[in-house]
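Fold this complex.
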Amino acid sequence: MQDSNYTSRKWTNRIMLGLSGTAAGLVVVVLALILSYTLVNGISYLNLDFLTQVAKPVGESGGGMRNEILGTLILIALGSLFALPIGLMTGMYLSDFAGPRMARFVRFVADVLSGVPSIVVGVFAYAIIVRPMHSYSAFSAGVALAIIMIPVVARTTEESLRLVPHAVREAALALGISRWRMMLGVVVPGAFTGIITGIMLAIARIAGETAPLIFTALGNAFGVQGLFKPIGALPLQIYRYATSPYQEENQQAWAGAFLLVLLILIISILVRWMSKRKYHG
Amino acid sequence: MKPLLSGNKKNSITRETSFKGLGNTGDRIFSNLTLLFSIIMIVLLLALIIILSIDAFPAIRKFGVSFFTSQSWNQVQESYGALPAIFGTLLSSFIGLLIAVPISIGAAIFLTELAPGWLREPIAFLTEILAAIPSVIIGLWGLFVLVPFIRSPVESWLGSNLGFLPLFQGPPFGVGFLSAGIILAIMTIPIITSLSREAIRAVPDNQREAMLSLGATRWETIRRAVLPYSRSGLVGATILGLGRALGETMAVTMVIGNSYNLTASLFSPGVTIASKIASEFNEASSELLVSSLMALALVLFIITLLVNIVARYLVRRMTATSTTKR
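Structure:
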């Protein structure tokens, strides 16, 4: 009796531990499946034309996503331009200037904002910019992406600034400099790697965002025409081409996906490498 | 998502030696400047809530409660009801979590309790990469790889062997709730895994040692000591994953089939709030339709807001108790 109980416990143990290992393995397998399909399919349809040519009309083969690649870079730059001042300053406010109650409130707002579904952000950007200006625009898409970026940058900046030891702040103040000089001259440089890591994470996040672009950037067959005109974007074009009935366009979607995944893999690996060198004081 | 977990206690150290009131003009300007930018963020969120509410108002006023109970989405008769979209959002997220939670918690257990040291960080890194892959690419993969596989063998097999269940009835389209659920599982596994890992890691070692010293097997230790101790953290992780799944747009739009109906079958094409907005907003011409879509966005915003607040509370409570008990 005792013996068989022991055996069954031992087997339960083995089975359950085995299952948990299988679960971890499954996660790795799923990632491998997605990456391998994207990379293998993508590279077979990727060529120089894809990077240098503009989209051809349906039915003609060839053509590329030059405009969309350029568009995505512009949108990332616009989003960062709007989001970085707000995100960085909010991070500094949270770590060094806010009272505990205010800090809790601002942090709550940042958390709520980061939980807003990106499609809702897109609808909002449409309502405040596209509709009153009567035009889809790169500008409105930049604002939508910035709204997604702000809370990420704010929270990672705050965390990085907090990692700078308090003694460093006191040492700076003891030399008689004012607090804002201490922040910009001593604390921010100390937390620099961490802050940059946060910014890169935020960029990786917005680089692939599609939902908020559908009714802000819209896409533009004529290339990049200016800040207040519609603009193409890589993820948007991947979506359109993926759901298109034409095989040539499906293939271009895979090639676009390859580029996007490559960009995000590079950023992730850089972030990983950099966060090993964060401030440990 | 790590920043969300850290306690707020550290801040008090900074506060004790802050020099509020003593600062010179430069300090006051800079401090107010940081406050000003924080206020911009707060205003953005308020504006989002207000604008959505204003734009949703015409639809809510016209349809009243029936907006939430009606199944029709008819542009000719101008009658719009949200029920199929709300139902589809909840159903697809539920299927997603049903698949994601056991896998995530299993993986988290493996990563914290079982895996040898050299294996932990690489697997954790791979999970992070899975989290970073854009939704549209998961959708592309889902559409061209997963959906054909689901159509046959999975759905045709389930249909012919378990077709008597209402869950598995109807023709195997491939696109539909089953595919959407699997895609959502893939997209929520990374966040649930990493938060569960944090929660399990916060369990003090003496809890494990006590169980092991009583002669428990490792699984019994996990089952009776580790999991109960980290329960609120695990629930929080799950609910945060739910918040992610509810608002997920692109990948779901690409594999769910976009058909506006209520159904009990997992094979059936369906719709979610996010996919409805994504596929219809640009073409919406009538003001009432735009307002109805705005109302859908508002509903989605409110649901995810509530879900996120509950999750944050649970996760925070978990990390708070673990630091005091240590």
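Strands of chain B lie at 73-74, 79-80.
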